[in-house]
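Q: What would this chain look like folded?
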Amino acid sequence: MSFPLTVPSIDDLTAEYGPLRTVFADSGPLDVAREHQPDYSVEILVGKTLRESVINGAVLMIRLVEYTDPFTSTLRYGVEKWSVLGFRTVDHEVHAVSDVEYERQVRAEFAAPALPLGRERFTGGLATFYDSTDVI
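A: My prediction, written as structure tokens:
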């Protein structure tokens, strides 16, 4: 006998554990002081990559990273999305929240691509859309 595994939505998780925090963005509001961005940038860049989806090297990258907050010394989980069009990094102290946000962003990019891509990218779902991905 098997039981279906249901993964909570990002809305359910943030209702229970609090919202994601915006650390970087090319536009819009941030939840950390702009003068602290260099400190966060260093910590996130040297953080441990847990998951990653990429199109053409660095034309688009969505990455889940474990890093240490430079001001509180707490472990946090960031989801960064970088492309030739812009960037945004959100994070949370609960791994599951950021993990679900990572999957949401990977699937959202496939559903409504921000980049102009050839038709061949859409022939085999996420496996052909991304050059590398761990989302199935």
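The longest strand covers residues 60-68.
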